[in-house]
Write the structure tokens for this entry.
Amino acid sequence: MKIIVCLKQVPDTETQIKIAPGGEKIVTDDIKWVMNPYDEFGVEEALRLKEKFGGDVTVIGMGPKRVTESIRTALAMGADKGILISDAALEGSDSLGTAKALAAVIKGLQFDIIFTGQRGIDEDQGLTGACIADLLGIPQVSLAVKLEVAADGKSVKVNRPVEGQTLVVEAQLPVLITTQKGLNEPRYASLPGIMKAKKKPLEEKALKDLGLDPAEVGLGGRKLKIIKITPPPARAEGKIVQGETPQDKATELARLLHEEAKLI
Amino acid sequence: MEGYQEYFGEIHNMARATVRAFVDREIRPHVDDWEEDGDFPTELYRKAAEAGILGIGYPEEYGGSGGDTFVKIAAVEELVRSGSAGLAAGLGSLDIALPPILSIGSAEQKGRFIGPVLKGEKIAALGITEPDAGSDVARIRTRAERKGSHYLVNGSKMFITSGARADQLTCAVRTGAEGYKGISFLVIDAGTTGYSVSRKLKKMGWWASDTAQIFFDNCMVPVENLLGEEGQGFYAIMENFQKERLILAVMATTTAQMALEESIKYSMQRQAFGRPLTGHQVTRHKLADMATLVEASREFVYRVAAKIEAGINQVKEISMAKNFACQVSDKVTYDAVQIHGGYGYMREYLVERLYRDNRILSIGGGTQEIMKEIISKFILC
């Protein structure tokens, strides 16, 4: 079974995000970058399928050179091959631009299943997986929390949560599946795995290798423009309810919940 | 980032991420309970072995993970960051127990004594200190007398990290005359007749690590368990110390860093006299001093580590770095408790544990005073 995992590198969830002057970007200095947690589920599921059906796992990432660290982490977990798409002309691509670049690379590869995280935890768009599937003309199943590939390796049943219920979707391979929390518990990149990962192939591709028009991607190709990023409102200071007696306090609390918080 | 050499590269960052994930998943949720209980489940050795953490720095042919000094440093830092340096010491007791085997043991002994430990199947401890011989290693009295195919061992070992649970003890014994030339190393199986753990010791800090006294009463150890030749023990002990001191120095800088972080967090929240503590110049300046010391200490330790990794003799420098790092962590953990006031004296605050756990660092692996003796020998020649 040929499996491809697309991964994104995102700021670590513990990072204190600061907005850059101009309000359109975040400050990227001093950020610790990690593999998008939703993509980790994809890597883990790919490795499990490989263990069951044989085959190999290729990991594709896009972005600056630092993204190799996340690709190497996936190789250290057990993936076989990495591809980094890195080109200044791709910087600032929106989900569609990113999908075009990823799909251009994937078109040159053999695959049965493609995994992407259900969304990147940085921009929270959740579009890239669907865009790739559309560009490749294959079915897409989103938000997988459980999946079962048929013994003949020709189809897959995917469980996805819908409003507290579970929807079971069946699709023919090749298919693109986006992965959701709950699908599995990703393994660690073991220390021996990390040491082996440096010897695994990691290919680098630039825009010219993709056969894409530079105008379709990067900042210029954006269909979505970021106008302004604002921080979440600062949390207001707590209020201590005053009153002479418990009854007074309860009355005041009820009034505040009704009039100020508008909760009751 | 370009234009100067970082100590940590891609491999180190990945190794750190793995150890951190391991700590988050396997240790952090239980760490306070384990500290109070005075040990951690032995299963953790197996789990750490599976992730390859125990194997860091050991050759692949014996089941190790490979990795250089800075992979080891990243791992120690993250394990100490679990909040229990005692756990880091207990889980890491193999790192003092195995190096003599690796250094002077035969290929057969390496296979027999190193493999099972790196797999997490056996717990290894090092036995040098005795009730009457600590810094003065050359005076150890545990005797091993050759009787045909065995050594008959009599004596006792003190303050043995992982001692109560160890399956094998890399043990310094006297096979020859008085003085350092008469010392040899035996690997003693804890199941040997005449081997007993007399008691688990109660300590000021490092609660989650088990520390024990061990007795040998006509303990019959096969001669195949002698490492190298008789009389080679003292050199193996001395060789081992450089890495042990580096690890202790790293533990000190990490402890100090954590105490600083806790203090910054607390100072920004805690109100006094109508302002947060950071609104008072005295606190701000104290924090600035703490941060400066921690930075200098860490950079010094890293620098010495880089030279050790390059194979440059650093006996003087590692002694200095250990002392400096411990003096800094002594001061910083003291100040951290001071900043926390009464809360800093309470067990539910991390700085209370950091303060207690820190105290051993300037005693173990060579005391402050022994370090100074070593340094003075280098600078007064």
Summary: DSSP finds six helices and twelve strands in chain A.
